[in-house]
Write a sequence for this structure.
């Protein structure tokens, strides 16, 4: 075999996942809650940093809050190969989304270290900060910053449900938002990135294939729609004199579902994930409703056109009902096409390890999507039980994770050799 790497240890992987799962907001009973740019997220980064130091890595945190651990390369002056994912979660998450990729990085470092594996390029193991869009609406903040897609000025407008801006949240954990440009990655220093992640869909499980090699990553357009009607007494106001913002919002939810489900939108996913009705009293007709809309697509034109169509048709619907509609763009990320040559390295490694794989798109956003703007990036998916994610029921077996980690650890070594011979690829 071309890529001799001793195998990943499933029990150790499961134990690390358990350690991270314990770092959850107290009182948040179901699942794991460890939001972006909180003290708990920092604690998880400290656990990662401690383990990586034990494997002989040099560890630092950048101005975006990303933790980077480096294992020295054999040859001086070469750019780094990298792997990793994120340690923050959505509210009431499972224990795998993002964490699996960080644990995969830890296990890869352990395999290299305990087997004395020497690679020419430095290997960097990265825990990205603030990947989830759940708190601030925008996904992948840590990896957007290193890719130059999010700049200091962008950190003031995006706020969480309590009105805390990204910049304030960063400051509260000791980061300096005005200095984030210092975190930028340069292709002189970084050569290629491969992220392992749980699939968050049911394609691998239902087809009985243990590994996915990702070709496309969906983009997302996120909007806040505000419907303004007239709050009034539920007993005193006859049905024909109402301007019920929630009834209009209910129609908008169904409109969005039907647009995404029509024949022009095969593959588009559009969701109202949150809906806040005010004043929120059983005896008052809702006067105002906020709908948070998330549109995902691998087709960037269709993604933006869908957003436009939703607004136009919701306006017509609101006019018919005598309520007003306003819209605000919360975040917008383009889909990514990952480089074929890197995909072929990962697919070739699967073949060498005798691990069946399939090429597949990603419905979710990922740090690799952002990093691919700076350096060539690839992704390895492992099966998700019943395709469930962003839920306490999210599950992937430790054996499947170990198989994915074997592919990751060997793929990075294959890249190490390939880029020595063909540095122009990176
Ligand atoms: C990231 O988890 C996403 O929402 O796609
Ligand atoms: Mn994730
Ligand atoms: Mn997620």
């Amino acid at each position: 075999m071309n890529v001799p790497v001793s195998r990943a240890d499933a029990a150790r992987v499961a134990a690390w996942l358990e350690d991270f799962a314990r770092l959850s907001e107290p009182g948040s009973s179901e699942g794991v809650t460890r939001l972006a740019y909180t003290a708990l997220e920092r604690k998880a980064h400290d656990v990662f940093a401690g383990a990586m130091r034990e494997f002989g890595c040099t560890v630092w945190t950048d101005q975006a809050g990303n933790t980077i651990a480096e294992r020295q390369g054999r040859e001086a002056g070469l750019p780094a190969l990298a792997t990793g994912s994120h340690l923050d979660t959505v509210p009431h998450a499972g224990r795998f989304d993002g964490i699996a990729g960080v644990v995969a990085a830890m296990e890869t470092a352990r395999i290299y270290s305990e087997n004395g594996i020497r690679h020419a390029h430095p290997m960097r193991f990265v825990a990205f900060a603030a990947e989830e869009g759940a708190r601030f609406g925008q996904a992948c903040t840590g990896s957007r910053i290193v890719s130059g897609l999010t700049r200091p000025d962008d950190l003031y407008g995006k706020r969480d449900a309590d009105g805390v801006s990204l910049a304030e949240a960063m400051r509260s954990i000791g980061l300096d938002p005005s200095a984030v440009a210092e975190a930028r990655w340069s292709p002189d220093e970084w050569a290629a990135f491969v992220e392992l992640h749980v699939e968050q869909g049911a394609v691998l499980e239902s087809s009985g294939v243990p590994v996915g090699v990702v070709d496309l990553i969906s983009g997302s357009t996120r909007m806040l729609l505000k419907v303004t009607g007239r709050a009034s007494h539920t007993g005193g106001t006859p049905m024909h004199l109402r301007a019920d913002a929630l009834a209009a919002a209910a129609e908008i939810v169904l409109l969005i579902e039907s647009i995404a489900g029509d024949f022009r939108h095969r593959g588009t996913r559009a969701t109202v994930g949150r809906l806040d009705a005010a004043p929120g009293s059983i005896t008052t007709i809702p006067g105002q409703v906020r709908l948070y809309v998330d549109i995902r697509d691998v087709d960037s034109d269709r993604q933006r056109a869908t957003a436009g169509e939703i607004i136009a048709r919701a306006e017509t619907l609101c006019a018919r009902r005598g309520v007003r509609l306003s819209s605000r763009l919360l975040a917008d990320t383009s889909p990514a096409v990952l480089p074929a040559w890197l995909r072929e390295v990962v697919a070739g490694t699967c073949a060498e390890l005798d691990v069946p794989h399939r090429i597949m798109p990603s419905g979710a956003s990922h740090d690799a999507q952002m990093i691919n703007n700076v350096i060539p990036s690839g992704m390895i998916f492992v099966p998700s039980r019943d395709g469930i994610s962003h839920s306490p029921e999210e599950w992937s077996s430790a054996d499947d994770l170990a198989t994915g980690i074997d592919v990751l650890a060997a793929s990075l070594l294959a890249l190490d050799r390939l880029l020595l011979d063909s540095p122009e690829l990176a």
